[in-house]
Structures are given as structure tokens and as C-alpha cells.
Amino acid sequence: MKAPAVGKRAAMPAIPDEHVVRVLRPFVAATGPVLRGLRDADPFRLGRLARRRALELSEQSGREPEPAPTTRRGRAGRVLRHGRARALDRLATSKLPGTPRWQSMSPEERDQWWVSRVGRFTSVVASIPGIGGALARRLPVSDILGLAAQGLVVCAIASEHGMDGRDEQVRLLANVLFGRDVDPSRHGDPHGADVEREAGELRGTVGQEHEERGRLSALAHAVWRMGKTLWGLQSELDRRPQGGRVWRGVANLPVVGAVGSYRSERSGLKRAARAAARWVAREQGRA
User: This protein's superkingdom (predicted)?
Assistant: First the structure.
């Protein structure tokens, strides 16, 4: 028996399940390297510093403390070293991938980290002039990026909870984003050549860039393309998790509309994350 869909039920959907699956499979296939890029993106090298400090602390355990300096210069140097150490200690215990703190975080804590990371990144992308070229002037940028953010967070949550199968994530996306119960196993191979080709077009050069600036640019364009492909399910878009009526109303006002749009998308992103976590828990409880 299928799980009840998240969200409201309307009349029989016009788009057939086969088309929904065909759109969602390349999206799911492309999320792996994009999510790794979002997780590892570290333009200020904070994660590297945190991991280095954690390693220093493990190497220093058991060592004798350094003797107190006797000169003014030595005392000043010690103060500076202690200040640096305290700052790095805070980083070493922060919630950043690769740190000891990250390893000890629960899946639910990581879910919230993904909501924050993806939401902030797509907000930055939305502020980049010309990210979508001429097409961006004809399409609602915030809606496209908001849809991409929801899809990425849903897939990230599935992976954090051990649900990595492509068609499992397709079912999850269809349920959370569009209120649809679909059976992808009835619609071809999730690893077919056409799926891999379209996924490659979506992620572009993500995973191939070594310089941080190049990686962030590749991620920005990949997120835009991924949102644009989901936009192909236009008749289903009003079903996706959205912010409250107040913020959606503010989004339509001049001047303050950008703030309303941002708050609405953030609220919708959190709702999608909660719905995804509930769906995954329900499915795993049945296993």
C-alpha cells in the first residue's frame, strides 16, 4: 500500500507519472556531485582550518605543556598563540563537514545544516546578475532556484538517512514536491543512457573544478539548470511546499517584495525538509 502523499490533493493530475519520473531521474542522478560540492565548498577555508586544528589537538594530547616565557617578547608571542588556538578550537568544534563535531551530529542535525547551506547558497545565486542569461528575464528566478533548493535538500536528507537509491529518491521528490505517488519501477531504467546523459548536462563541470572560485561558479550554474528542468512540470508547481500567506503576500509588494520572497522560500524549504524527513522515517519503519 502506498504512503499518502504530502500536501493537498486536487483533481487527477494532467501530467502522467511517466513524465514526472522522466524529469526527476536526471535531477536525482545529478544531485550527488552537486551536493558534494555544496558540502565541501569552503571559500574562506574555515573547514580546512578546523580539520587542521582538530589534528593538532590530537597530536598534542599527552605532551608536556610548554614552559612559561620569561621575556616580554616571549609572553606577547604566547598570548598571540593562545588567541589563535582559541579561535581555531571554536572552528574545530563547529558544525562543518570533516570536523569531529560533524561526525557526531545526528541525521536530524545534518538535515538542518543542509537547509541552511542550500538556502544560503541559492539566495546568493539569485543575487548574481545574469546567472540565467536572457532566459532569467523571462522566468521567475526565485521560484526556479527555490524549487531547485527544495529538490536538493530533499535528496540530501534522503542520503543522510541512508536512502540512496535513485528511484527511492524519485518517489520521495514526487511525493514532497508535487504531492504525487509514483512507481518509478514501471517506467524504465534509472541508470539508462538517456538518464546519465541528461544528468551530465545538468551538473556540467561540477566536480571537475579545482579552484574554489571555479567550483562555486560551476555549482551556481548547475543549480540554475536543475531548477530549470524541474520547471518543466509547471502544472504541478503549485503543490510544492511554500511559505505562509503573509510572506507570499509581501512578495508581491514593491520594494519589500524581495524580502517577502526570500522569507517565503526559506519557509517553504524548511517545510520540504520536514516533509522529507517524515516520509523517509515512515518508509524505513515499514522496511
Answer: Bacteria
pLDDT per residue as tens digits for the range 26-65: 999 999 999 988 887 654 455 566 666 656 656 566 555 6
User: Is 89 exposed, middle or buried, given 0-12, 13-18 or 19+ CB atoms closer than 10 A?
Assistant: middle
Measured distance CA(234)–CA(172) in Å, rounded: 18
DSSP helix/strand/coil, 85: helix
Which residues are within 8 A (CB) of 21 and not within 5 positions of it... i.e. 6 or more apart? 170, 174, 182, 184, 187, 188
- Would you say the C-alpha torsion 106, 243, 227, 199 has a positive or negative sign? positive
Alpha-carbon gap, residue 272 to 209, rounded angstroms: 30
With both helix axes pointing from N to C terminus, report the angle between 17-40 and 141-160 in degrees, rounded to the nearest 10. Answer: 80
Position 8: which residue type?
A: K
Q: How far is CA 86 from the centre of its chain?
A: 30
Q: Cell 538517512 belongs to which residue? A: 161
What are 114's three cell numbers? 543542509
- Which pTM value belongs to this model? 0.74
Residue with cell 542569461: 133
User: Rg for the chain (alpha carbons), in Å?
Assistant: 22
What are the residues whose beta carbons fall under 8 Å from the beta carbon of 264, sequence distance 6 or more? 242, 243, 244, 247, 248, 250, 251
How far apart CA 265 and CA 260 sit, in angstroms, is 9
CA count, 13 A, side-chain hemisphere, 12: 1
Q: In terms of pLDDT, which residue wins out, 113 or 243?
A: 113
Q: Is residue 255 packed enough to be buried (19+ CB in 10 Å), middle (13-18) or exposed (0-12)?
A: exposed
CB 104 within 8 A of CB 92: no
- Please answer whether residues 280 and 161 qualify as being in contact, where contact means their C-beta atoms are separated by less than 8 angstroms: yes
